[in-house]
Design a protein that fits this description.
The structure is a single chain. About 10% of the residues lie in helices and about 40% in strands. The chain has 1 helix and 10 strands, in the order βββββαβββββ. Strands 1, 2, 5, 6, 7, 8, 9 and 10 form an 8-stranded antiparallel beta sheet that branches. Strands 3-4 form a two-stranded antiparallel sheet. A hairpin with a 5-residue loop joins strand 6 and strand 7.
Length: about 180
Amino acid sequence: MSRNGTTEFGLDFVTANRFYVEIESSLTAAFTECQGLGVQIQHESISEGGVNDQQRILLGQPKFSEVTLKRGITNDLVFWNWINAVLEQRNQGTAIQHHRRNINILVFNQAGETMQCWTLIGAVPTGWKAPALSADANNVAIEELTLVYEGLKIVANQGGGGATILNSRDQSGYFASN
Protein backbone atom coordinates (compact mmCIF):
# COMPACT_ATOMS: atom_id res chain seq x y z
CA MET A 1 0.00 0.00 0.00
CA SER A 2 1.33 3.46 -0.88
CA ARG A 3 1.40 6.49 1.43
CA ASN A 4 -1.94 7.87 0.17
CA GLY A 5 -3.82 4.59 0.78
CA THR A 6 -3.82 3.36 -2.85
CA THR A 7 -2.90 -0.30 -3.31
CA GLU A 8 -1.05 -1.88 -6.21
CA PHE A 9 -4.49 -2.73 -7.64
CA GLY A 10 -5.57 0.92 -7.78
CA LEU A 11 -8.00 0.61 -4.88
CA ASP A 12 -8.14 3.41 -2.35
CA PHE A 13 -8.99 2.28 1.18
CA VAL A 14 -10.46 4.33 4.00
CA THR A 15 -9.93 4.14 7.71
CA ALA A 16 -12.90 3.98 10.06
CA ASN A 17 -12.04 7.31 11.69
CA ARG A 18 -12.49 9.53 8.60
CA PHE A 19 -16.20 10.30 8.34
CA TYR A 20 -18.72 13.14 8.58
CA VAL A 21 -22.49 13.13 8.91
CA GLU A 22 -24.73 15.66 7.18
CA ILE A 23 -28.02 16.29 8.98
CA GLU A 24 -28.96 19.95 8.48
CA SER A 25 -27.71 20.65 4.91
CA SER A 26 -24.12 20.92 6.10
CA LEU A 27 -21.47 18.92 7.87
CA THR A 28 -22.85 18.60 11.37
CA ALA A 29 -20.22 18.54 14.11
CA ALA A 30 -17.56 15.95 14.69
CA PHE A 31 -19.02 12.57 15.44
CA THR A 32 -17.11 10.11 17.54
CA GLU A 33 -19.05 7.10 16.34
CA CYS A 34 -21.52 5.91 13.74
CA GLN A 35 -22.60 2.33 14.22
CA GLY A 36 -25.20 -0.11 12.97
CA LEU A 37 -25.38 0.84 9.29
CA GLY A 38 -26.48 -2.22 7.34
CA VAL A 39 -29.17 -4.11 5.48
CA GLN A 40 -30.38 -7.70 5.56
CA ILE A 41 -32.57 -9.12 2.83
CA GLN A 42 -35.06 -11.52 4.26
CA HIS A 43 -35.11 -14.84 2.43
CA GLU A 44 -36.65 -18.27 2.49
CA SER A 45 -35.09 -21.55 1.38
CA ILE A 46 -37.36 -23.95 -0.52
CA SER A 47 -36.45 -27.57 -1.22
CA GLU A 48 -37.98 -29.20 -4.28
CA GLY A 49 -38.80 -32.88 -4.32
CA GLY A 50 -36.33 -34.88 -6.38
CA VAL A 51 -33.73 -32.07 -6.48
CA ASN A 52 -31.23 -33.13 -3.84
CA ASP A 53 -28.22 -30.98 -4.80
CA GLN A 54 -29.83 -27.53 -4.82
CA GLN A 55 -32.44 -25.40 -3.13
CA ARG A 56 -34.45 -22.40 -4.24
CA ILE A 57 -33.90 -19.09 -2.45
CA LEU A 58 -36.85 -16.69 -2.44
CA LEU A 59 -35.95 -13.10 -1.61
CA GLY A 60 -38.19 -10.96 0.55
CA GLN A 61 -38.15 -7.41 1.90
CA PRO A 62 -34.97 -5.64 2.99
CA LYS A 63 -34.60 -4.85 6.68
CA PHE A 64 -32.43 -1.82 7.44
CA SER A 65 -30.71 -1.77 10.81
CA GLU A 66 -30.89 1.14 13.21
CA VAL A 67 -28.01 3.65 13.06
CA THR A 68 -26.65 5.20 16.23
CA LEU A 69 -24.69 8.45 16.01
CA LYS A 70 -22.54 9.57 18.94
CA ARG A 71 -20.86 12.90 19.53
CA GLY A 72 -19.57 15.08 22.29
CA ILE A 73 -22.19 17.41 23.73
CA THR A 74 -21.84 20.99 22.50
CA ASN A 75 -24.12 24.03 22.46
CA ASP A 76 -25.53 22.79 19.12
CA LEU A 77 -28.94 21.22 19.86
CA VAL A 78 -29.54 19.72 16.39
CA PHE A 79 -30.09 16.20 17.83
CA TRP A 80 -32.49 17.32 20.54
CA ASN A 81 -34.33 19.80 18.31
CA TRP A 82 -35.01 17.09 15.74
CA ILE A 83 -36.35 14.45 18.13
CA ASN A 84 -38.24 17.10 20.11
CA ALA A 85 -39.98 18.26 16.92
CA VAL A 86 -41.05 14.66 16.29
CA LEU A 87 -42.36 14.39 19.86
CA GLU A 88 -44.29 17.66 19.63
CA GLN A 89 -45.80 16.85 16.24
CA ARG A 90 -46.97 13.43 17.43
CA ASN A 91 -48.66 15.08 20.41
CA GLN A 92 -50.39 17.55 18.09
CA GLY A 93 -51.43 14.85 15.59
CA THR A 94 -49.38 16.32 12.71
CA ALA A 95 -47.93 13.90 10.18
CA ILE A 96 -44.52 12.61 11.21
CA GLN A 97 -43.16 12.54 7.64
CA HIS A 98 -42.50 16.29 7.89
CA HIS A 99 -39.55 15.47 10.13
CA ARG A 100 -37.94 12.84 7.95
CA ARG A 101 -34.62 13.61 6.32
CA ASN A 102 -32.17 12.08 3.93
CA ILE A 103 -29.00 11.82 6.03
CA ASN A 104 -25.58 11.58 4.39
CA ILE A 105 -22.68 9.70 5.96
CA LEU A 106 -19.48 10.50 4.09
CA VAL A 107 -16.24 8.51 4.41
CA PHE A 108 -12.88 9.89 3.28
CA ASN A 109 -9.51 8.50 2.33
CA GLN A 110 -6.28 9.65 3.96
CA ALA A 111 -5.93 12.47 1.41
CA GLY A 112 -9.31 13.90 2.50
CA GLU A 113 -11.13 12.93 -0.70
CA THR A 114 -14.71 11.64 -0.43
CA MET A 115 -14.67 7.91 -1.11
CA GLN A 116 -18.32 7.02 -0.52
CA CYS A 117 -21.52 8.72 0.51
CA TRP A 118 -24.13 6.59 2.26
CA THR A 119 -27.58 8.20 2.21
CA LEU A 120 -30.16 7.07 4.75
CA ILE A 121 -33.45 7.67 2.95
CA GLY A 122 -36.41 8.93 4.97
CA ALA A 123 -34.54 8.83 8.30
CA VAL A 124 -36.35 9.75 11.49
CA PRO A 125 -35.03 9.72 15.07
CA THR A 126 -36.39 7.05 17.38
CA GLY A 127 -34.09 7.56 20.33
CA TRP A 128 -31.93 10.17 22.06
CA LYS A 129 -29.72 9.47 25.03
CA ALA A 130 -27.86 11.87 27.27
CA PRO A 131 -24.56 10.81 28.86
CA ALA A 132 -24.14 9.62 32.40
CA LEU A 133 -22.89 12.51 34.52
CA SER A 134 -20.47 12.09 37.41
CA ALA A 135 -18.67 14.68 39.52
CA ASP A 136 -15.39 12.74 39.39
CA ALA A 137 -15.42 11.99 35.62
CA ASN A 138 -12.95 13.65 33.26
CA ASN A 139 -14.03 12.21 29.91
CA VAL A 140 -16.11 13.96 27.22
CA ALA A 141 -19.89 13.83 27.68
CA ILE A 142 -21.29 11.88 24.69
CA GLU A 143 -24.88 12.10 23.45
CA GLU A 144 -26.47 9.49 21.19
CA LEU A 145 -29.12 9.70 18.48
CA THR A 146 -30.76 6.55 17.09
CA LEU A 147 -32.21 6.67 13.57
CA VAL A 148 -34.41 4.35 11.55
CA TYR A 149 -34.74 4.79 7.80
CA GLU A 150 -36.68 3.46 4.84
CA GLY A 151 -33.90 2.96 2.29
CA LEU A 152 -30.18 3.20 1.61
CA LYS A 153 -28.28 4.65 -1.34
CA ILE A 154 -24.50 4.39 -1.73
CA VAL A 155 -22.41 6.33 -4.26
CA ALA A 156 -18.63 6.38 -4.71
CA ASN A 157 -16.31 9.35 -5.29
CA GLN A 158 -19.03 11.97 -4.76
CA GLY A 159 -19.81 14.37 -1.96
CA GLY A 160 -23.11 14.30 -0.15
CA GLY A 161 -24.32 17.71 -1.30
CA GLY A 162 -26.17 18.47 1.91
CA ALA A 163 -28.82 16.53 3.75
CA THR A 164 -32.39 17.23 2.74
CA ILE A 165 -35.55 17.66 4.77
CA LEU A 166 -38.35 15.63 3.23
CA ASN A 167 -41.85 17.03 3.00
CA SER A 168 -43.69 14.45 0.96
CA ARG A 169 -43.48 11.07 -0.71
CA ASP A 170 -43.53 10.54 -4.47
CA GLN A 171 -46.47 9.00 -6.35
CA SER A 172 -45.27 5.47 -5.55
CA GLY A 173 -45.28 6.24 -1.81
CA TYR A 174 -41.51 6.46 -1.28
CA PHE A 175 -39.10 9.27 -0.44
CA ALA A 176 -36.68 10.51 -3.10
CA SER A 177 -33.12 9.23 -2.67
CA ASN A 178 -31.32 12.46 -3.58
